[in-house]
Specification:
By secondary structure, this protein is α+β, with helices and mostly antiparallel strands. It has helices spanning about 1-30, 35-45, 50-55, 65-75, 80-100, 105-115, 115-120, 130-140, 150-160, 165-185, 195-215, 235-250, 265-285, 290-310, 315-330, 345-375, 385-390, 405-415, 445-455, and strands at about 400, 420, 425-430, 460-465, 470-475, 475-485, 495-500.
């Protein structure tokens, strides 16, 4: 009887994981990568050494684990499509661990596997966040045997902190929960032969957090998200309600520009409802204080970061939901307060929380399937189409002039070009450097540089821009040779001009 149950469970895990992977494999064929995806690829590709890689990451606001994975990949494959396959494998492994080791029901696991963040945001869009989700799920799967796996858990937490600033926050809150559990629950039972393993794990954990923060700390000339919001602002507080709604109810609008939109447009109402959900989940976890502590600390830590430093987008807000999943995952294996198990009010809270969780999962699954369908139906970014046009017409050897962002990065990535000319810095380059030294770009400056490069090559040069420009310039013939259709990203549409000397 037991072996039959194990067989059925294994078949279920294989089935859900296979469906997830195969559908994802189909969908990434039609997902056109955007600038942030290809920025990471270009940094990894054009960094000559590992030290050079970390130098180029200074302005990214992320630690380097994802880029370290891409670094050898760029030496093997010339196409950034390889990154999409790697990313899909990471996302599929997360679903495999969820289905195999989590304590959720069959329906909950299925809904979670095809939820907005796991099925779409952290699967089809190739960013470093999926790696963070995988490591969180690995930590959750190791939690029941944490006393035997302290060093392994510390190493995984170290890696988690090197995925993103969100990973740092979650790693800190999870590590704090472990420390408090060690101090207050069955301390003498943690390690049979003494506590040296705990202290070794703690050193590894602290080392991971410190080195991650050292990488994230922006240089003095950083030009991205440099301000702090440390005082109370009503507008910022209202925006935070939308952040919570994004995390728990990320259903998009059903139109071309669906990404980072809310079908439930009243973010205040749904934000308040989401706060109510957080309150219910927190109370229902009190009987498992370590799980409750992790959930409350991680939620507050993320919200504080969104409020004080960077409000972010739906892909960032999704980690609030991932923390809820993680807290409910580890709760059954956490130390419990026995006196609460017979309390009728507490048991009612658990029932309400469970039903709320099922409703949220159902909404997440609707959002995930909807977003995946919309990604398949619409062109996410026109960078791939522009690159195809340039290659088809054998224009890739011409000097390409392009504004720094958004137009250039996607085109450079798909062209596999070494560089384009960036008038913002008067340099040839590939990836963007987010410092404060860029100069403003005018149409006159673009046309002046086009005139200069066209005079050096009888075939002329290309201007790949995100807006139309005048086609009259003394001594220069300027022809609009390609204009892209609209895209999901309204600012990743392109105008391609061929500039030649008359």
């Amino acid at each position: 009887m037991i072996s039959q149950k194990i067989d059925r469970d294994d078949v279920y895990v294989l089935l859900i994981t296979s469906i997830f992977f195969l559908v994802g494999l189909f969908l990434i064929q039609s997902h056109e990568m955007w600038r942030d995806e290809l920025q990471a690829w270009l940094i990894a590709r054009d960094s000559k050494t590992i030290l050079d890689l970390f130098y180029n990451l200074k302005y990214e606001g992320h630690p380097g684990l994802w880029h370290l994975l891409l670094y050898p990949l760029t030496r093997i494959f010339s196409s950034p499509v390889a990154m999409q396959y790697l990313h899909l494998c990471i996302a599929t492994t997360s679903v495999l661990i969820l289905c195999k080791f989590s304590p959720f029901t069959f329906y909950e696991k299925t809904g979670l596997s095809f939820s907005y963040f796991l099925f779409y945001e952290y699967s089809l869009i190739s960013r470093n966040y999926s790696l963070g989700v995988l490591l969180i799920f690995i930590l959750c799967s190791l939690y029941p045997a944490r006393r035997r796996n302290l060093i392994t858990i510390a190493l995984i937490a170290l890696l988690l902190s090197h995925t993103s600033i969100l990973g740092v926050i979650i790693s800190i809150t999870l590590g704090s929960s472990f420390i408090l559990e060690y101090l207050f629950f069955n301390r003498n039972d943690w390690i049979a032969g003494g506590h040296s393993k705990f202290w070794a794990a703690l050193i590894v954990f602290i080392f991971g957090v410190v080195t991650a923060i050292a990488q994230i700390k922006p240089p003095t000339d950083s030009g991205f998200a440099t301000a702090w919001h440390l005082s109370y602002e009503l507008a910022q507080a209202k925006t935070l309600l939308g952040v919570i709604a994004d995390a728990y109810l990320p259903v998009p609008n059903f139109d071309l520009h669906y990404w980072n939109t809310r079908f439930f447009s009243n973010s205040f109402t749904f934000g308040v409802l989401s706060i109510f959900c957080i309150f219910i989940f927190s109370l229902s976890l009190i009987g498992r204080p370590i799980a409750a502590l992790f959930y409350i600390l991680s939620t507050l830590g993320l919200l504080l970061f969104f409020y004080a430093k960077y409000i972010g987008y739906m892909r960032h807000h999704g980690f609030l939901f991932i923390c809820l999943v993680a807290a409910l995952w580890i709760a059954p294996s956490s130390n419990k307060i026995k006196c609460l198990s017979k309390n009728q009010f507490f048991n009612l809270l658990i029932t309400v929380a469970r039903k709320l969780f099922i409703i949220i999962i159902a909404m997440q699954a609707v959002a995930g399937v909807s977003a995946a369908y919309l990604d398949w139906r619409y062109t996410f970014s026109q960078a791939k189409n522009v690159s195809s046009y340039i290659l088809l017409n054998k224009m890739q050897d011409l000097v390409i002039i392009s504004e720094w962002s958004p137009p250039a990065i996607g085109v450079v990535g798909y062209l596999n070009a070494n560089s384009v000319y960036y008038p913002e810095r008067d340099i040839f380059g590939s990836f963007v450097k987010f410092d404060n030294k860029n100069r403003s770009v005018t149409d006159d400056l673009l046309l002046s540089k086009a005139n200069e490069f066209a005079s050096e090559n009888s075939k002329g040069c290309l201007l790949v821009l995100g807006h139309p420009i005048p086609t009259n310039y003394d001594g220069l013939s300027i022809e609009l040779v390609f204009q892209s259709e609209p895209a999901v990203l309204y600012d990743e549409v392109y105008y391609v001009y061929l500039a030649q000397r008359k």
